[in-house]
Amino acid sequence: MRRLFIVLSICLAVIAAGCSRSEDKPSAEAAESRIVSTTVAITEILDALEVDEVVGKPTSYKELPKRYMDVVETGNPMNPDLEIIASLNPTDILSVTTLEYDLKAVFDEAGLPADYLDFTSLSSMQDEITELGQKYDRTEQAAALNNQFKEKIDEIEAKTADKDKPKVLILLGVPGSYLVATDKSYIGDLVSRVGGENVVQGENVEYLASNTEYLQQSNPDVILRAAHGMPKEVVDMFDDEFKTNDIWKHFSAVQNNRVYDLEETLFGTTGNLAADEALDELYTMLYEEK
């Protein structure tokens, strides 16, 4: 009887140990994932979540996480190489909603359906981080990352609670032209977070064509100039535009030297891990003398 009791005890211990080890392992879905991340922002977030199942990353001049040093490059986020992506046998292809209009038909036709993450605002990015954490068994990492954003948001809201709202014009430059960012854009959302009032509101799109006469009438207190791709060339373009187009001389923001160029690594066109630092930068631009 004593021998039987010992044998049963050993069996129960083995079973318990086996259950304990299985709880530490990722789910079958997460373990078998083969993820192609097509944007820098998504790649950085997956790294922050400690997701190792990435088999494809975007081609970029920006430095990508060392975790994915040996991962295959799949081309520009706006024009990914479908042949390379297909060769990786992905289970998940991750892009962003701002590129869905251009990419969905292309991916679908190639038999490569993708998921499009909403990074158009800080809150929507936080929601996506939560979902990624759940999908890839990284809920603790996702919660910690989102809590970091929440702490910064709370800090900024406390600092701006009693301040007057400056009116802000946001220009998004691309080589050769520029657009106006509405409050529906990611940078527009950040401006709202720090208490700024976007001069372009009530639109259903993120960006609009520029109309300088209308913009002058809006009389912004601050002008923010963001670059999308080739930032040096875009800054040069903005400088030339502001020097040669006389209408800018009549903007009070220009007269008061309150025109700021946004660093592209902090102010992307979609949400990204630099949101904390971007909020601090915007607070300085909108409220403090530089």
Automatic annotation (TrEMBL):
Entry keywords, A to Z = Cell membrane, Coiled coil, Heme, Iron, Lipoprotein, Membrane, Metal-binding, Palmitate, Signal, Transport
Instruction: For this entry, list what GO says about its biological process.
Output: cellular response to iron ion; heme transport
- Domain Fe/B12 periplasmic-binding per the UniProt entry, residue ranges: 34-290
**Cofactor(s) required for function per UniProt:** heme b
Superkingdom: Bacteria
Q: Which N-terminal stretch is annotated as signal sequence? A: 1-16
Q: Which GO terms describe its molecular function?
A: heme binding; metal ion binding
Family annotation (Gene3D superfamilies): Nitrogenase molybdenum iron protein domain (3.40.50.1980)
Q: Which residues form a coiled coil?
A: 122-162
Entries under Pfam families matching the protein = Peripla_BP_2
- Give Gene Ontology CC terms: membrane
The entry assigns this protein to a family as follows: Belongs to the bacterial solute-binding protein 8 family.
What name appears for this protein in its UniProt entry?
High-affinity heme uptake system protein IsdE
